Amino acid sequence: EVMRQHKLGPNGAILTCLNLFATKFDQVMNILERRAFGSDEVGDKPSGDDKNDDETNTETQETDSASIDPPSPKSALDYILIDTPGQIEAFTWSASGTIVTSALATTFPTVLAFVVDTPRCAASVHTFMSNMLYACSMLYRAKLPMVIVLNKTDVVGCEFIKEWMDDYESFQEALDDASSSGNGHSEEMAGGSGYYSSLTRSLSLVLDEFYNHLHKVGVSAATGDGVEDFWEVVQKAAVDYEEGYLVDLQCRI
Q1: Nearest-CA neighbor of 96 among 178, 32, 204, 20?
Q2: Across-strand partners of 147?
Q3: Neighbour-count burial of 204, counting CB atoms closer than 10 A to its CB (0-12 exposed, 13-18 middle, 19+ buried)
Q4: CA 89, CA 161: separation in Å to the nearest integer?
Q5: Residue 146, beta-bridge partner list
């Protein structure tokens, strides 16, 4: 509809929708705050004159005689999970995306969750490196704690990725293995001695320090395995928010 009305392409329509959404995000924040801190829809009503008090008492008696329980207030939420637009550039590097992220981060302890396709990383060390560069750009832009969510562990285990992130030499060995196997790709694309491989090796050294500031956890969206571990890691990342982002925010204010 936005593409048709404004004569835009797919990317322009996504950015326009995000901009329109950002102009109404204060309403979203009001909803989130009510749900996060408990609903105040049910509670003590302000007292008025005696007539109003009598009417209130009458209504209460009628309710009791009918044996109708009053609606219970909604309990406060422990977590709020927000799925952002799938195109990382549209959300991370747009002004409206920054507005949404900042509004959340100044109100709630906010943590970024970057979902990685584990089987695709297992198929190519370069895919893994591309994912890490995306994660690095998001961390650099938002300055918020980040959790790397290694999804689809029901298909491929994620221990090899954790090892690559914890041990620089382990990733170099994986690059060497990719170079020797080839898998039908050119030497440069497979991880050989070409420019592509050289760049990947250099980036892995640069990102080695970056990995130290990341939380990582393996999950399976299909089976639910690892979800409890995910929430535990989010709790740890929330502590980083309190000690890092929040302190920086207070200094800026």
Answers
A1: 20
A2: 113, 215
A3: buried
A4: 24
A5: 112, 214
Taking residues 73-92, report their average pLDDT.
78
Q: Which long-range contacts (CB under 8 A, 24 or more apart) does 191-197 make?
A: 191/125, 191/126, 196/126
- The H-assigned helical ranges of the chain are 2-6, 10-23, 25-36, 50-65, 88-92, 95-105, 118-123, 125-142, 159-166, 168-181, 187-190, 195-211, 227-240, 246-252
Return d(Cα 50, Cα 73) in angstroms, integer. 27
H or E stretch covering 116? strand 112-117
User: For 194-213, how does the pLDDT look when each residue is reduced to its tens digit (9 = 90+)?
Assistant: 677 788 888 888 898 889 88
Of the candidate ranges 62-71, 79-88, 133-142, the one whose mean pLDDT is the lowest: 62-71
Residue appearing with tokens 């298909």: 155
What pLDDT digit, counting tens, does each position of 132-176 carry?
Answer: 999 998 888 888 999 999 999 999 999 999 999 999 899 989 888
**Tokens 């207070």, residue?**
250
pTM: 0.77
